[in-house]
Amino acid sequence: MGTLNLIHNTPLIFLDKISAGLPGKIYAKAEHLLPGGSIKDRAAYQIILDAYQNGNLIKGQTVVEMTSGNMGAGLALVCKQFGNPFIAVMSEGNSLARRKILNAFGAEIIITKQVDGSPGMVTGADIAYAADLAKDMAQNRNAFYVDQFNNPSSIKAHFHHTGPEIVKNLPEIDGFIASVGSGGTFIGVSKYLKSVNSNIQCMVVEPQNAAILKTGKVKDPRHVIQGTAYGLIPPHWDETLVDDFITVTDQEVLEMTRKLSEEQGLYVGYSAGANVLAAQKYLMAQDRALNIVTILCDSGYKYDDAILV
Ligand SMILES: Cc1ncc(COP(=O)(O)O)c(C=O)c1O
Predict the structure, then answer these.
(1) How many beta carbons lie within 10 A of that of residue 137, not counting itself?
(2) How far is 287 from 156, CA to CA, in rounded Å?
(3) What is the CATH number for 51?
(4) How confident is the model at residue 98 (pLDDT cuts 50, 70, 90)?
(5) Which residues make Cβ contacts (< 8 Å) with residue 228, sequence separation at least 6?
(6) Whole-number Å distance between alpha carbons of 220 and 53
(7) Is 40 a catalytic residue?
(8) Ligand 1 pocket residue status of 228, Cβ below 6 Å
(9) Do 49 and 194 sit in the same domain of this protein?
(10) How far is the C-alpha of 182 from the C-alpha of 150, rounded, in Å?
(11) φ and ψ at 25, to 5 degrees?
(12) 213 with 180: CB under 8 angstroms?
């Protein structure tokens, strides 16, 4: 078995401590256990596979992408297995831990300045700045530009793998909750779930002050949920898949992320904390026992210690 075989079939964990006292159960898919430490390994693998199949990428050709760190780690390890050099263009606002991981996976790293964010809080403008630079670099070097926000392979990865894995593990699923970065996870999984059973409810999690998908507005682009809620509507966004929106504050997310490690033994990042918190909020408003599935998007090891304590 090679490294790439590790990219699918993560366990679906019953969060017994978090679910205690709630009407219903929260299950979480342990994507933080993937080899690159996040759910983005799935998108990275599918994107490179499809690029080879479509003739957009050949062996030895350089791959370039703008990344908050997780897609970069996935691409770095996948590209290495396929024999392609990888360049990650990343905002300086992302954690140092992510830079170290990219470095360890053998990526070339280009750091870009922040436009209006701050360390640990990367905004849509920061991302757009890094993406422009990545695009130029890809053109200049005749490289393959991944373009994760516009690349449909990410949705495909979740439609063909993450979604079916969830249903296989928990056929009695009632609802699914996820935060949105490129939207690949939410769109791909929700599309699959609704194709199996249109009654499955699919909910989006957003920071209270950057709930653009719910409200169309961003009051403050800065929040702790790195990798998500960039204050933009993802190009492939499909609002017909959304049954409800749940908003969360930074303080609540910090508390739940801490609780997940301290009580549930799961050392995961803030989007995982936001997802589980949203599942808890959703269940608290229900009057019958439901099975809710969410995602543990990445590992707590991806974050600088100062943030998680
Ligand atoms: C930590 C984290 N959580 C959630 C997401 C959202 O995933 P998606 O891009 O599939 O919406 C990302 C995306 O990079 C991420 O890095």
Answers:
(1) 17
(2) 35
(3) 3.40.50.1100
(4) confident
(5) 179, 180, 181, 205, 271, 274
(6) 41
(7) yes
(8) yes
(9) no
(10) 8
(11) -130, 140
(12) yes
Q: Final residue of a domain: which of 121, 145, 169?
A: 145
* Whether residue 85 is found in the same domain as residue 202: no
**CA torsion through residues 306, 119, 66, 105, sign:** negative
User: Which atom in ligand 1 lies closest to the alpha carbon of residue 226?
Assistant: 1
Report yes or no: 163 and 189 within 8 Å, Cβ to Cβ. Answer: yes
Please tell me the total count of domains within the chain.
Answer: 2
Co-location of 113 and 178 in the same domain: no
Query: Among 96, 119, 145, where does a domain finish?
Result: 145
E strand intervals along 100-223: 108-112, 144-145, 175-179, 201-207
Structure tokens at 69: 């760190």
What's the domain range around 90? 40-145
Categorize the per-residue pLDDT at 272 as very low, low, confident or very high, splitting at 50, 70 and 90.
Answer: very high
Ligand 1 centroid–CA 69 distance in Å is: 10
Question: How sure is the predictor about 305, in pLDDT bands with cuts at 50, 70 and 90?
Answer: low
CB-neighbour burial class of residue 140 (10 A; exposed 0-12, middle 13-18, buried 19+): exposed
Q: Is the pTM higher than 0.90?
A: yes
Is the model's pLDDT at 38 over the cut of 50?
yes
Span from the CA of 180 to the centroid of ligand 1 (angstroms): 6
Domain check: are 219 and 302 in the same one? yes
Which residue from 280, 257, 256 is spatially nearest to 267, judged by alpha carbons? 257
Q: What is the DSSP letter of 244?
A: E
294 in contact with ligand 1, CB cutoff 6 A:
no
